[in-house]
Amino acid sequence: MLIDNRYVPRHQKMFMLCHWLNGISFLMLFLTALPLYADTFLFIYNIFGAKTLQYLHRFFAVIFIVTPIIGLLSAREGYGTLFKQAFSFGSDDLIFLLKFPLTLFGMHPNMPKQGFYNGGEKINILLQAFLWLVLVVSGLIMWVGNGVIDNSIRAWMIPIHSIAAGLGFAAALAHIYLAVVQNPQSLRGMTDGFIHADYAVHHHGAWVDELIKKGVVTKKEIDAARKAA
To answer: What domains can you pick out in the chain, each with its CATH number?
Structure first.
């Protein structure tokens, strides 16, 4: 059944909350560490103090670590779909990745139908999961490993942690740009929990076909919503 005869339900409330907590905590971790890497940001130390930033970094680190765990317990359907989709990469996803850059230049190539997540989103999910693991492991070794883990290993964690953070920030910027500028309906899906039927068919056609097959919505409802768009 469509919401307001126009919108397809997409994300659970707890799934959306965990998504935003994860994103905000990562951003705060990045900001609180910036003075360590560039003198340009030393003014942050001058305003808040180095000790305060250290405590804030650890506070947001805890949120960053526990958020996915809370999500796995409280939003199992959303996280189950996320990982199931991410690890079911097929030929249609590959074709999507090859053609997607053309859309950034205003072109409209013929894309294969995509599932709940498209090929690009699947790559982003796997990348973010990998970076989360690297950041958490390297961060914990630096934080609580003193006297427990060999110092030579701890020293390696500094560049590893920094590189992972840089890659994560670059991926986050691309993610934000695509959500806000290229596909604002996807942003709505992560704020209100639903997306317009026309957008769903255009960007996640295989998923809409599954919803129709399961009886969650009818083709008549989808067609009517698209005509009214």
So the answer is: 7-228 (1.20.950.20)
